[in-house]
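Standup notes
- DV: blocked on the single-chain target, sequence here:
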Amino acid sequence: MNQKLKTSLAFAKNLFVTGAIFETSRAVEVNICKYIPKGEGKIIVEFGMGHGNITREILDTLSPTSKLYAFEVNESFCEHVRKTISDNRLIIVNDGAQNLKRHIKEDIDGVVSSIPFSFFSKEKGLGIIQDAYDLLKDEAYYSQVLYTKFNFKKFQQIFEECYMESNKKKTISEYLYYCKKANHK
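- DV (later): unblocked, structure below
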């Protein structure tokens, strides 16, 4: 069985955890990483690592002295990534995004997320976004991919600057939300 089919089956079995049946498109993998800072010693957080497609793109973007904390609730997905991505900058966190502050105490330089906000309560979704905002450095970005425009307002409630782009696949649109924390100095 090829990897794409295996991934689709794994995603379908875990639909309410992953929020997806398919992996994100290659275009989204590249575009969601466009605001990752290029400098040395950056700390990036990924919510919803899945099988690591976006994870690989983030690592390709990061400097050798940076770190990526990749959150994933599905243990089998974590094991898959441990076996397929060997990179000392990658720290896999087998936990949900709502527990970000339990695992990271330092300021972060960016967030890349593909978690399914549509399956979360409003309170849980806003809590995740607020916690990420609180840890983000000024002028840093939170980038999110979803299959609906519905959750965009949640991000607008917290971030000072937000915009959205869409990537149309055959039958599904992938929406990229880009949210920037203001400079508070």
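- Follow-up: The mean pLDDT is 89.
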